[in-house]
Design a protein that fits this description.
Elements lengths: L1 H10 L10 E3 L2 E3 L9 H4 L6 E7 L8 H11 E14 L5 H14 L8 H11 L2 E8 L1 H14 L3 H9 L2 H19 L2 E9 L2
Helix pairs in contact: 3-5, 4-8, 6-8, 7-8
C-alpha cells in the first residue's frame, strides 16, 4: 500500500520539499523520521494532529511515560493514540518470566516488557481516556513467529550470528522464545486506542 501510495502521489505532484505535507485527496500527510521519545521537542507548540500511530515500537522505548505524554501534547482534542505492541502476560511467575520473557527482552534488546494494563495506566496518567480497550490478537499474530523461525534456520545465518557475538545469537534465539511465549500465553500482542478529550 505504501509503495502504491508513494507512486500515485509522486506521479501527480511537482517536486517534493522534504518535510512538507503531501496532498492526499482532500487532506494531506507529512512523513517525519525522528526519535519517538523526543517528538515533543521536535513538534513544539503543536497540538493539531488527528492521530499518533505506533506499531511494534513502543516496547523498545525505555521511557514509555514520556512517549504517552508527548503523544498527548501532539494530538488535538478528540485525537487518537493507536498502539499495536508486544506485552508480557499478567501474573507471571518468576520461572515463566525467566523461561519465556527474558530471552525475548535480551534477544530483541528490549527494556522490561510491560503488561497491557500498564500501558492503560501510562495513558491515563498522561491525560488520555480509553477509546478502545486492549484487544488481544496474540492468536492471530503467533503464526508470524512460526514462519520467522523457519526462515532463520539457515546454517549460514547462524554462522554469521556467531561472528556477532552473544547479541547475534540471542537475537536468533529470541524467535524461538517468541514462539514459546505465544504457545504458553506468557507473551501477548494487543491493539489499543486512547483518546484526548
Amino acid at each position: 500500500m505504501a509503495t502504491k501510495l508513494t507512486r500515485d502521489v509522486s506521479s501527480h505532484t511537482d517536486e517534493k520539499v522534504p518535510g512538507e505535507p503531501i496532498q492526499l485527496g482532500n487532506g494531506s500527510a507529512r512523513f517525519v523520521e525522528l526519535d519517538a521519545e523526543t517528538m515533543g521537542e521536535f513538534f513544539t507548540d503543536q497540538s493539531g494532529f488527528d492521530c499518533v500511530w505506533i506499531s511494534e515500537a513502543m516496547s523498545h522505548l525505555p521511557d514509555k511515560a514520556l512517549f504517552f505524554s508527548n503523544a498527548f501534547k501532539l494530538l488535538k482534542e478528540g485525537g487518537k493514540l493507536v498502539i499495536a505492541d508486544w506485552f508480557r502476560g499478567e501474573g507471571l511467575t518468576e520461572k515463566q518470566v525467566g523461561d519465556d520473557i527474558k530471552p525475548i527482552e535480551d534477544g530483541m534488546l528490549l527494556p522490561p516488557l510491560c503488561t497491557q494494563p500498564e500501558y492503560v495506566a501510562f495513558a491515563k496518567e498522561a491525560g488520555f481516556g480509553v477509546f478502545c480497550a486492549p484487544f488481544d490478537i496474540s492468536k492471530d499474530v503467533a503464526k508470524t513467529w512460526d514462519i520467522s523461525w523457519s526462515l532463520v534456520q539457515s546454517p549460514s545465518l547462524w554462522a554469521f550470528a556467531v561472528t556477532q557475538g552473544r547479541d547475534g545469537i540471542a537475537f536468533l534465539q529470541a524467535f524461538l522464545a517468541m514462539r514459546r511465549g505465544y504457545a504458553n500465553g506468557t507473551f501477548r500482542y494487543a491493539v489499543m486506542v486512547f483518546e484526548k478529550s
